[in-house]
Amino acid sequence: xxxxxxxxxxxxxxxxxxxxxxxxxxxxxxxxxxxxxxxxxxxxxxxxxxxxxxxxxxxxxxxxxxxxxxxxxxxxxxxxxxxxxxxxxxxxxxxxxxxxxxxxxxxxxxxxxxxxxxxxxxxxxxxxxxxxxxxxxxxxxxxxxxxxxxxxxxxxxxxxxxxxxxxxxxxxxxxxxxxxxxxxxxxxxxxxxxxxxxxxxxxxxxxxxxxxxxxxxxxxxxxxxxxxxxxxxxxxxxxxxxxxxxxxxxxxxxxxxxxxxxxxxxxxxxxxxxxxxxxxxxxxxxxxxxxxxxxxxxxxxxxxxxxxxxx
Length: 311
Fold this sequence. Notes:
The chain is of the alpha/beta class.
C-alpha cells in the first residue's frame, strides 16, 4: 500500500463537482469486548465469520482481465469503451445509470480505513477513533479499525449509499493501517477481522468487494474478496504477491503512476507489465495513470484490460 502517497480527490473539489464530458454519453456479529471499551452496545451488522466465494454468487463479480477505468478527479469522462468504471461514491446516481445503460459495471470507491475531513459525513467518526494523519494528506487520518462499534455504522451507511445508487461493487481503500503509522497498536488479526466484516457487509447488500492493496494479507483474504485494486506493485517489484488471487481466477485491477518522483513512463510500464517477462501479469488489468487519478489512462496494446480502441 502506498498510503502516504495515495492519490485522492482534492479537498473542496469532491466528486459531486465533477463535470460530465458531453461526449461521454448521449443521454452480523458483535465485536470483541476489547473493541468496545466501556461496554458499548455492539452494532448488529455483518457476521465476523469469513464468507468464501460460491459457484454462483448473488452479486456481480468482475472477470479476470476485464477492461476498466479508474477516475477520482477532474471532468468525469464516461466515453471510454471499457467494461468497468471505478468512481467515487459521491457521484450522482445518474452517472451510474448512464454507465449501466451502456452495459458497463460500476465500482464505488470508499475510503474505509481513514476519515477525510472534507467528506460530508466526517463528523460521524468521533475523536477517539481518529489516529495519525497520512503524511501527504494532513486532512485525512487513520481510523481505529478495532472499534467497529464506532466506525462500523458510518461505513455501513456509505455501503448503503453505494447500493442505493445502483453501484455493482465496492473498492474499500486504506485497509492496511496495521503496517502504517496509524497511531493505534493494530495487529494483523485486527486488520483481517475488519476487512472480513466489510466484505460480509458488501455481500449482504449485493455488492462485490474489492481488496485495496494490503498485499501482506492477500493469501489470508483470497477467499473473502471478489477482486483487488492494487497500486504500484510493478514499481516496487511485489506483483508476485498477487499470485493467489490470479490463481483463483479473480480480477486484479492494477495501476502504476507516471508522474512524481521515480515513477514510470509508458515504455517502462509496458515492459514491466509484460506477461512474457512475468507470467503473473497474465490476466491482470494494468493501467498507467496520473497520480491525481484524472481521466487520462495508458494501456499496452494487446494486454488484458486494454479494452477496445478508445478504451
